[in-house]
Amino acid sequence: MSHSLPALVVVDVQRAFDEWEAAGKRRNNPDAVARIADLLKAFRTRGAPIFHIRHEGTKPTSSFLPQNSGYAVKDEAREAPGEAVIVKRVNSAFIGTDLETRLRAGNITTLVICGATTNHCVETTTRMAGNLGFDASLVRDATWTFDRIGPDGDKHSAEEIHAMTLSNLNGEFARIVVAADVIASLEAMRQ
């Protein structure tokens, strides 16, 4: 029997990204963390499972080293008592963690994925969720990314990267949704 409620997977909502912004990196979706807070509230209200993913850097220059300020979770996305916190060291929340084991043990088949960044850990986790057979939804207004320079020196805006990532994932690995629709469908579900 599958779990009737979806699980919320919150990927890497950590202070390192605030530090990147403060250092001049430009991002899209300035309201993404507010949408993540809305999702957390709705999932908590329904008693739906929540999995918090943290990235732990392994390179000496990483913004995500556990002893550094960037490792800490942003206040708006802090876990509540009893909510799972899973630490990963690569882009996918499924590699080197017990996330899949926990989901299978809970008979959870539907995932709602949000967090940062759209084209790195969120995308990798979403692709793997789809490949592993989970019914995944990616919340487009609850994830964000940063401007990047491509291999040929081309500048790509965060908005372009975000849109292309959503296009790549859409239908093949996940449904692309908005937070308000996730919350409305959660509220409409009966226990």
Task: Determine the CATH topology.
Answer: Rossmann fold
- How many DSSP E strands? 8
CATH architecture: 3-Layer(aba) Sandwich
Q: DSSP helix count?
A: 6
The secondary structure category is alpha/beta
Mean pLDDT: 96
Question: In CATH's first tier, which class applies?
Answer: Alpha Beta
* Low-confidence residue ranges: none
How many discrete domains?
Answer: 1
End-to-end Cα distance, whole Å, is 14 Å
Organism: Bradyrhizobium japonicum
Protein name: Nicotinamidase-related amidase
Keywords: Hydrolase
Pfam families: Isochorismatase
Describe the structure.
There is one protein chain. This protein has about 190 residues and is an alpha/beta fold. It has one domain (about 5-190): Rossmann fold, CATH 3.40.50. The protein contains 6 helices and 8 strands. It has helices spanning about 15-20, 30-45, 100-105, 120-130, 160-170, 180-190, and strands at about 5-10, 50-55, 85-90, 110-115, 135-145, 150, 155, 175. The strands form 2 sheets. A 6-stranded parallel β-sheet has the order 3-2-1-4-5-8, sandwiched between helices. Strands 6-7 form a two-stranded antiparallel sheet. The longest helix has 15 residues, at about 30-45. The chain is globular.
